[in-house]
Amino acid sequence: MMLDFDVIWASLPLFFSGLKVTLELLLIALGVGLLLAVPLALMRVSKNPLINFPAWLYTYVIRGTPMLVQLFLIYYGLGQFEAVRESWAWPWLSQASFCAWLAFAINTSAYTAEILAGSLKATPGGEIEAAKAIGMPRLMMYRRIVLPSALRRALPQYSNEVIMMLHTTSLASLVTLVDITGAARTVNSQYYMPFEAFITAAVFYLCLTFCLVRLFKHLEGRYLAYLAPRKA
Amino acid sequence: MLHGYGASLLDGAWLTLQLALSSIALAVVLGLIGAAFRLSPVKWIAFLGEVYATVVRGIPDLVLILLLFYGGQQVVNQVAPLVGYDDYIDLNPFISGVGTLGFIFGAYLSETFRGAFMAIPKGQAEAGVAYGLSSMQVFFRILVPQMIRFAIPGFTNNWLVLTKATALVSVVGLQDVMFKAKQAADALREPFTFYLAVAAAYLVLTSVSLLALRYLEKRYSAGVKAAEL
């Protein structure tokens, strides 16, 4: 079997505009998700059950249900309620792209919060004791010692989450957005050429995945150098 | 509350469960083969295993599902006339769903199993060889039973991701819980209600799985003493 490269060549512009949509979705979801994840992770390591429990419930429910269901709940589901349709948020919530950003950001915030919480719990006791010993106030200790240290050590696991998120953005094509997968679905329905369409999409995703892996390897070399095994 | 669609949703949920269990069974087989390939001392076999794991893990599930379903459909219909079958063949979404999810998660599990095999002390396999066991016997009688304990945490993760990925097979027309919810939601214009019910069903499934696998982990760690702090 040979691939029809003329079709692939002709549809490349569509794939590149899809690439732009995919990257936008990914960056917005990751940015907002990380902002939400930091306070959630701090809640998750709290010893006070009133603070810990809501964050635990949030991450448990989000991580226990499929992304597709969450996306459909937001995009199709919210319109069921009169109050939502008449609220100020409706112009946004009726847009597929906003719903996709929102759903992906919520989803990644839960996973990222758990990663960060694990990393926070693994903070070496000496770092905290040292901060206390020189009389740092609590907030300053979190800002200067605990969070920077935990965020760095979370990098390897966070890189997995980022790649999972890249793959998750493909679901946006199911709510009418034309991302890379959406482009492939369009091409497939135009030409009835599933291999050309979806293999091209797969190659795009593979390249993106490899770029992300390289990027995180580089970041780890930069921010985790002090933890690397000593070279002989 | 579900306006008589409860039974239909339950039917769908049962199909989802069957899909998830069949897929994980296939994934375990492919994962073991993949791990055995990647640990092989023969270079090109190890390379094949590496390619399988890397390529599949670099592509979104949805793209692979669409590729294998629509692509498979085309291949079947091009091959069928050659063997004297002229009707148009529709691929069964359940079987292609199991095939696709098994193929995808086999790659993820090969990574889990590879790590678990490498965690077994070398002396175990060497002792097997010293007793005159064949390499197959060493693999199935010595390595696999010990590997399970190391593999359970990774397996748990992959199983949870797989259960959630089953929702995607509704896209190619499998009448699973997601598909039934969409039907009900369209008929009654109450999408939130029905998708929330689906979310609850998945939450029950993942919660039960977590408890069951935690119990299994305890059982398989029975012979290992954990140090108390």
The helix/strand series of chain B, from N terminus to C terminus, equals HHHHHHHH
Largest sheet composition of chain B: none
Largest protein-protein interface:
A-B, 41 and 40 residues
Tell me the CATH superfamily of chain B. MetI-like
Shape annotation of chain A? flat
Helix content of chain B: over 70%
Textual characterization of the structure:
- The complex is a heterodimer of chains A (232) and B (229).
- With 232 residues, chain A is mainly α.
- Chain A has one domain (5-224): MetI-like (MetI-like fold).
- Chain A has helices spanning 5-44, 49-64, 67-77, 82-85, 90-93, 96-121, 125-133, 138-153, 155-168, 180-191, 194-223.
- The radius of gyration of chain A is 21 Å and the shape is flat.
- With 229 residues, chain B is an all-alpha fold.
- Chain B has helices at 6-38, 43-57, 61-79, 93-118, 122-130, 135-165, 177-188, 191-220.
- In chain B, α3 crosses α4 (93-118), α4 (93-118) crosses α6 and α7 packs antiparallel against α8.
- The chains are: A mainly alpha (232), B mainly alpha (229).
- The interface between A and B is large, with 41 and 40 residues.
- Chain B: Keywords: Amino-acid transport, Cell inner membrane, Cell membrane, Membrane, Transmembrane, Transmembrane helix, Transport.
Topology:
The complex is a heterodimer of chains A (232) and B (229).
Chain A: H1 5-44, H2 49-64, H3 67-77, H4 82-85, H5 90-93, H6 96-121, H7 125-133, H8 138-153, H9 155-168, H10 180-191, H11 194-223
Chain B: H1 6-38, H2 43-57, H3 61-79, H4 93-118, H5 122-130, H6 135-165, H7 177-188, H8 191-220
Helix pairs in contact in B: 1-2, 1-4, 1-7, 2-4, 3-4, 4-6, 5-6, 6-8, 7-8
